[in-house]
UniProtKB/TrEMBL annotation:
<feature type="binding site">
    <location>
        <position position="92"/>
    </location>
    <ligand>
        <name>Zn(2+)</name>
    </ligand>
</feature>
<keyword id="KW-0862">Zinc</keyword>
<feature type="binding site">
    <location>
        <position position="89"/>
    </location>
    <ligand>
        <name>Zn(2+)</name>
    </ligand>
</feature>
<dbReference type="GO" id="GO:0016151">
    <property type="term" value="F:nickel cation binding"/>
</dbReference>
<comment type="similarity">
    <text>Belongs to the HypA/HybF family.</text>
</comment>
<protein>
    <recommendedName>
        <fullName>Hydrogenase maturation factor HypA</fullName>
    </recommendedName>
</protein>
<keyword id="KW-0479">Metal-binding</keyword>
<dbReference type="GO" id="GO:0008270">
    <property type="term" value="F:zinc ion binding"/>
</dbReference>
<dbReference type="Pfam" id="PF01155">
    <property type="entry name" value="HypA"/>
</dbReference>
<feature type="binding site">
    <location>
        <position position="76"/>
    </location>
    <ligand>
        <name>Zn(2+)</name>
    </ligand>
</feature>
<comment type="function">
    <text>Involved in the maturation of [NiFe] hydrogenases. Required for nickel insertion into the metal center of the hydrogenase.</text>
</comment>
<keyword id="KW-0533">Nickel</keyword>
<dbReference type="GO" id="GO:0051604">
    <property type="term" value="P:protein maturation"/>
</dbReference>
<feature type="binding site">
    <location>
        <position position="73"/>
    </location>
    <ligand>
        <name>Zn(2+)</name>
    </ligand>
</feature>
<dbReference type="InterPro" id="IPR000688">
    <property type="entry name" value="HypA/HybF"/>
</dbReference>
<feature type="binding site">
    <location>
        <position position="2"/>
    </location>
    <ligand>
        <name>Ni(2+)</name>
    </ligand>
</feature>
Length: 123
C-alpha cells in the first residue's frame, strides 16, 4: 500500500514546514488528490488517521480535495475533462492530448494554531 509511504512523506513535509515557520499545533492538512494519481482516497485517509498521532495531535484533520483529470489537445488547444478514461479531444477527433491536471498529489495548505499568535497574522 503506497498510500502509507505517501502519508509518511506528507507528515514529514508538514512537520518541516511548521518547524521552519516557528511551530504550533497543526489542526488541518489540506491535500489535493488527482483521479489519475493512483492514490485511493479511503486508503490515504486510513493511513493518515493511523499515522498522524506519531507527529501531531490526533485532533489534526485531513481534508482531501479530489481533482478531476483535465487535458489539453495538442491539435486544437481545447481544454477538457477526461471522463471514463477517454483520452480523446471532444472538439476534434485526435488522441494527441496532454494531461494538465489530476495526476498529482499536492499539499495545498496547513492550518496551525499557536499559543502566541503573531500580531496581524491569523492563526
Amino acid at each position: 500500500m503506497h498510500e502509507r509511504s505517501l502519508v509518511q512523506r506528507l507528515l514529514q513535509q508538514v512537520q518541516q514546514i511548521v518547524a521552519e515557520d516557528g511551530g504550533g499545533q497543526v489542526t488541518e492538512i489540506r491535500v489535493q488528490v488527482g483521479d489519475l494519481s493512483g492514490v485511493e482516497p479511503l486508503l490515504f485517509q486510513a493511513a493518515f488517521e493511523e499515522m498522524v498521532s506519531d507527529l501531531f495531535s490526533s485532533e489534526c484533520q485531513l481534508a482531501l480535495d479530489i481533482v478531476p483529470v483535465m487535458a489539453v489537445c495538442h491539435a486544437c488547444g481545447q481544454q477538457f475533462e477526461i471522463v471514463d478514461f477517454q483520452f480523446q479531444c471532444p472538439a476534434c477527433p485526435t488522441g494527441a492530448v496532454q494531461v494538465i491536471q489530476g495526476d498529482e498529489v499536492k499539499l495545498i495548505s496547513i492550518n496551525v494554531s499557536s499559543d502566541n499568535p503573531v500580531e496581524g497574522v491569523a492563526s
